[in-house]
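#data-curation
PF: Archiving a pair of folding outputs for the training set. Convention for this channel: one message per protein, sequence first, structure tokens after, nothing in between. First:
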Amino acid sequence: MDIKIGNIIEQNIDEIWLGERAEKLRESFRDGSFRYCRATSCPFLENKSLEVMDDDEFEDKSTPLRLPSVIYLANDFVCNHSCPSCRHDIYRADKDYLDKFNRAGEVLLPLLNQAEEISSCGNGDLFSSPHMIKLLARVKPQRNDFKFQIETNGVLFNEGNWEKIKNLHDSNISVVVTPNSYNKTTYEYLNGGHDDYNELMDSLNFIRDLRRKNRIKEYSISIVVQESNYTELPSFIERSFDEFEVDHVIVKPLYRWFKMSDEDFWFKDVLNPMHPYHKSWKQMMDSPILNDKRVYLWGAKNIHKAMRHPAYVYEDMIMAQNKLIANENDLVNKIREHVDELESSSITFYGDNMITETVVSLLKNKFAINIVARDFCRKEINGVEVKPFCKENVMSNAEIVVLNFDKFCYIKRDLDFMGYKGRLLTLPEWISEIGL
């Protein structure tokens, strides 16, 4: 889910937790639509394994508690790896980042103390982040049934770092480690080229020993299946069970995290029927060991939507752009007729890409133009300001034309969440509608 319900630094917890945006999300759960969820990231939606509840139980679980009881700490990006499936380089915290983290930490600490469950760390690595360690070392669980889940790449999970969170050792602790490969060459390729394979092996054995002593209650190892490791899957699972004695192996498909390019995602996503390794991946997923009840398939058997290589999307964009240029003489009159029909005084475009430049060049001196974008690097394009994608900049528009139309479904979902009631068109649809 990419929807944000608030900012803990700028708002108090009641305003966020019991606010209109949070309630809108809850309503999507109550009505069974889950329309704001990204199904490919949710194991329950991916595996069609949502819990079946009777009316009373559903009413109880869909009524918000006074404070959140399960907290996922995904507010720290600091990591000792630079996995290509996640980021391009090592993330290092600057002064502004640390200031925001510490301010958020002071707000979070009372919530963490009363929580039923905490999970850390969703966007970085717990043991590579001194400030995350410092925050967790201050936690004093108030519940006897408190649960603590550690998500880590494993490299720095050693005795010294384990002792830094000794205040949580009496909790019900589960550990999930994601090495992605036991082949040293593949492992280093997938972690961004970092030579720490031996440290990883030591850590996996250390966690195994903690599990043997019942110091942790559950030990899982996960693998994100992609083009460079999918053939290792059966041997990866076997070694996880036999040598590291894990309780579960979690097999995940690749997701679009952070700034992964369209080309990189396409190349790595073997679940795409148009990927050259797709048939080989399907054969690998028929391996008998994947039927072991200890193997949890987090959507890893679900075939993704067939996607052409992104170069074809660029081709579609260029064709749309060329159509605008080729009809430049008729363009202004047809757009004016269209705008008059909408009774609008401006045209709003979504997106910051090569087509935006063409559209602005053709129209900026003839119409009032608005440009909004969620991910943008330019503050203006040919003299027209690029405004952030937020409620204030979209709600008053009668119509929005999406220029990066390959992302149309995500943009539509976000606008629906904002409550946008206007018309939303891809550029090809808009070109057709104005009569070019």
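PF: Second:
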Amino acid sequence: MVGEITRSPWPRIPADTDLAHLKRWRGQRIPAHAQHQARLEHQTHAHTVTITERRTPRDPDDGSEWTSRPLAQRRHSLHGWRLHWADSNSRWQVIHDVPTATDLTPPLKVIDDPDQPPFLG
């Protein structure tokens, strides 16, 4: 019908403002004196944003690459963004105690909370 607004059934991609906030958060999370040894990165794919912790090799002389550990993932559904964590098998598990959010930023406080399961704490 003309003039009728319909809602897309497909999950949305993250807004540029959400990703800019995430980038600022990443930059503040690792202290300046440690940024040559560790960093946080994020990747987006469709309706998913994955935050990864990267660390330098234990022995830089052996030519090893930086290691990666999946830290958190936000997935968007028709209900909003849900926060997930990676279990010991690197499978993503939803955190049911964290409510669905309309943007990416509220879960960053959860990730920073040392009382929350297996994030940076």
